[in-house]
Design goal:
Number of helices: 9
Oligomer: single chain
Shape: globular
Distance between the termini: 15 Å
Order of helices and strands: EHEHEEHHHHHEHEHE
Helix content: 25-40%
């Protein structure tokens, strides 16, 4: 899926598109159907629900999208490792009924469960007991993740809010930052292609890499067969957007954009709210438009 289309001009905000958000099937707050309805309230015309390591047919969400004239793009966000750095690979416009999807989801679910158990063990060594069970209760039928541990830590009184939970226990480099069970980034890219989708490197600015290392990550992602880069992720500075644009051009990657929305509590990551996409970009949705 190499980039072969000519450079296209895209007017800023010409079409309201959000290709990165989460429902309560993973760590979001809204059901897929509620998420689509909220997208309609925000005036979004194209939406991808990209739950963590999970993609299912969503008939009710599709019906809501049809009623609101929203193009609903099937998606997934796969956790992976690039060396010792945890990265996320979006699979956009995947086939949610592909026979190849089941084994992928099952493997990621097992890795996620193993990671959760290890986070619980690490927190127990800090005398924070029963965090795994508490996080499982927070997750319910959803895929367990660090946000569920964060909510448990808040409700049990260990920390005052979710932000502090990440700062002290769950953020990068902290005790709950467990990366060892994810597949290599190259494998995650292959998985996306196996389910007929386009592989996009998510939120590149959030990995806290130097520009030299981020450049190398994008080079490796392209060599692995990656198709695109999340040029804009939520609200970011014009300098970050410009640098991501240069990386897209340098490695011939399509550009994507998304809010990484999890729920309406955070206005900074509200659905459809993101920095403007510059003109003269090769946009990922051109692949399936």
């Amino acid at each position: 899926m190499s980039v072969q289309r000519p450079l296209i001009e895209v007017e800023e905000n010409a079409m309201k598109i959000d290709l990165h958000c989460h429902s309560n099937l993973s760590d979001g707050e809204l059901s897929p159907q509620q998420l689509v309805r909220y997208a309609g309230e925000q005036g979004i015309e194209m939406l991808a629900i990209t739950d963590h390591d999970l993609a299912e047919p969503l008939p009710e969400a599709n019906a809501a999208a049809d009623a609101l004239a929203i193009q609903l793009v099937p998606g997934i966000e796969l956790s992976a490792n690039w060396g010792n750095v945890a990265v996320h690979v979006l699979g956009l416009n995947i086939n949610p009924v592909s026979a190849a999807l089941g084994p992928i989801v099952e493997r990621q679910a097992a890795a996620r469960e193993q990671r959760a158990l290890e986070i619980g063990e690490r927190l127990a060594k800090l005398n924070i007991q029963d965090s795994y069970q508490g996080a499982k209760a927070q997750a319910g039928t959803s895929r367990i993740g660090r946000p569920h541990f964060a909510r448990f830590l808040v409700e049990s009184g260990v920390v005052k809010d979710v932000k502090t939970a990440y700062k002290k226990y769950l953020g990068a480099g902290k005790v709950g930052d467990v990366k060892t069970h994810w597949p290599a980034m190259e494998e995650a890219v292959q998985w996306v292609h196996q389910v007929e989708g386009y592989a996009v490197l998510a939120h590149p600015a959030k990995y806290n890499l130097t520009r030299r290392k981020l450049d190398r990550l994008c080079e490796d992602f392209k060599e692995a067969g990656g198709d695109g880069l999340e040029l804009v992720s939520g609200m970011q500075t014009a300098d970050i957007t410009a640098y991501h644009h240069r990386l897209c051009e340098k490695y011939e990657l399509y550009a994507s954009c998304g809010s990484d929305f999890h729920g309406p509590v955070s206005s900074w990551h509200d659905l459809g709210k993101m920095a403007p996409v510059p003109g003269a970009c090769r946009m990922i949705w051109e692949c399936w438009a």
